[in-house]
Structures are given as structure tokens and as C-alpha cells.
Fold:
Amino acid sequence: MRVLGIETSCDDTAVAIYDQHEGLLCHLLHSQVDLHALYGGVVPELASRDHIRQLLPLIQEVLARCHTTVDNLTGIAYTRGPGLIGSLMVGVSVAKSLAFSLGIPSVGVHHLESHMMAALLEADKPTYPFVTLLVSGGHTLLLLAKNFRDYEILGESLDDAAGEAFDKTAKLLGLGYPGGPAIAKLAENGDVSRFDFPRPLVDKKNLNFSFSGLKTHTRTLYESHSDDANVKADIAAGFQQAVIDSLMRKAENALKHTGVSQLVIAGGVSANLELRRQADQLSKKGFSVFFPAREFCTDNAAMVAFNGFMHFKAGRTDSIATNALSRWSIESME
Ligand code: KG4
Ligand code: ZN
Structure:
């Protein structure tokens, strides 16, 4: 099996090829960051239009770099949802048309499942069952992965996603988009103990999160210390630590609650180096913690090609009428 993977759920156009015997052959990504930076966030209409411009040339380039042609592909996987509907539709249309013209199957995969599967691309990988902490720009949830395609949501954010909180806080501090890497960089020079950020819900027994209060706290602090040269770095450090504490506490609760010993942390925020470092505390408590490679934490097509390969292996393919889904629960993927 040789699977072409296509990712267009938000503001990255990405293409990759995964081969059953040779593993990941090639992966390329065209980021739209410059296009959206001007507006301080993703403009959906501009995102769709850019996917149309970028996708076919990127597929051509990936095939060329792999020294292969479409005739050697056995299937095409694409992100079916959740995501921006216009962006998803570009990937769905190209993937299904290409598969149709080649007479090979296509399969639409779940974006969050792909993020989780990125951890299974690593040599040191978990075996089922494991708990997954999915932390992206649009979602934050704790999931029990009992088996491939058998997932139970244990808890989720009741308001902003963790990545969204990074993005909104960065915007308040005038750091631009995307906010996660900018906050992380600034936090390196900040005093983490100067400001006391709230940790909503951490003492509650449930496995839910809440991050929307952090941006209000940021705004108040920033406005009341506007002439202080270090305030941005100190806020960044305090904010980042509050998010990490919430994530770590609830992940540990989920592991104890399920009796499972392995934790996967995936999605854009899992690229955060301080989070990766502090997850070590869980290792010291006897849990095994797994991350995708850093380049496969944020949106990419390697995870889509590999996830698609797993779906094909399990005998799943699209019907000719399969469409894109802007909202799609990972618990009910059929
Ligand atoms: O998974 P992803 O690439 O896209 C979605 O599926 O949403 O996640 C993007 C999110 C953004 O909110 C971005 O600010 C955040 O991941 N992010 C980070 C870091 N790199 C990306 N957050 C914290 N630290 C980082 N180093
Ligand atoms: Zn994503």
C-alpha cells in the first residue's frame, strides 16, 4: 500500500506519502501564516482560495521528490473534518477526484485522530489502550483510545481550546499570529512566579478544562502594568505555566481514573517545549508519556497519510458521495 495524504483543514496546505514497507517517504507543507498575519488570525475565505492555488503543485512536488508517480499510489487519504468548511472542501474535492480518475479508493479521516496517530509514527510509540491529551487551536480534549477507531471522550474544554488561549493572549500582548510559538519564546525570559494566574477547574473531579478566564486576567494585568518593560515576558511565562498546570493535572487525573499507564500528548500545543519538559513529571510518577515528533505536532500531512493507511488496512474506504464535515465528533466517526 502507498497512500497519498492531503491536509487542508485550516491554514496549512500539506501533502505526504506513506508507504506500507518504506514508511513516510516525503512530506511537504505550505504555510499561509504570512497571508493571515496581516489580519491577526485566519481569514477562512482567503484560506480556501490559497489551498486551491497551492494543493495541486504541492502534490506534483511531493511525487517528484519521492521519485514516484500517481500510478504507484494505492489510495488517497484526506482530512474530512473538523475544520473550516471551505478549506476542507478543497482537500475533499481534489482527493476524491484524483482517486476517482485513478480508479483507486479514497478515505476521509478525522483531523484529531490524525493528530493522535502522529505519535504512532515514532519508533518509541504506545500500544492500546492509552489516554490522549489533544491540544490544538480548535480543540482541547482528553480521550481514552481503547483501540484504533474506538475512542471515548473523558473530558474537554468548556470554552476556549488551549491553542486558542495562546493565540488570544498573544493578540492581547500585540505578539501577532500564531500566538503559541510567540508566547513560548517570550516566556523564556519571563518571571514565572511574578503573576498568579488562575487555574480554573483544576480542583474539580471532572476531566474538563476552562481557559477563557486567562485572557481576561491577561488583559487586566497588561493594562495595569503597561509602562513596565518586563510585563509581557512575565505575563507570557505565568500564562503558559497556568495552561501547562491545568493540562498536566487533568491528564494525570485521567490516567488514574482509567487505570491506564500511557499518555499521548498531541496537537499544535504539544510542540510547546516547556510542556514537553514538564510532562517528565508524569514519567517520574510511573506513567509513560509519548509525543509526536515536533514537526508533526502542528498541522501536517504525514499524520494524514499514516492515518489513512491505517484506515485502508482496516478495510475502510469512502463512498462516492462522502462529503466534508466542519463539525465531527471523534467518538462517532462513522
Ligand atoms: O494542531 P494545530 O496546528 O491546528 C489545529 O488543529 O488547530 O494547532 C495550532 C495551535 C495554535 O493555536 C498555535 O498557537 C498552537 O497550536 N501552537 C503552540 C505552539 N506551537 C503551536 N502553542 C504553544 N506552544 C507552541 N510552541
Ligand atoms: Zn490541527
The chain has a mean pLDDT of 97. The first strand starts at residue 2 and ends at 7.
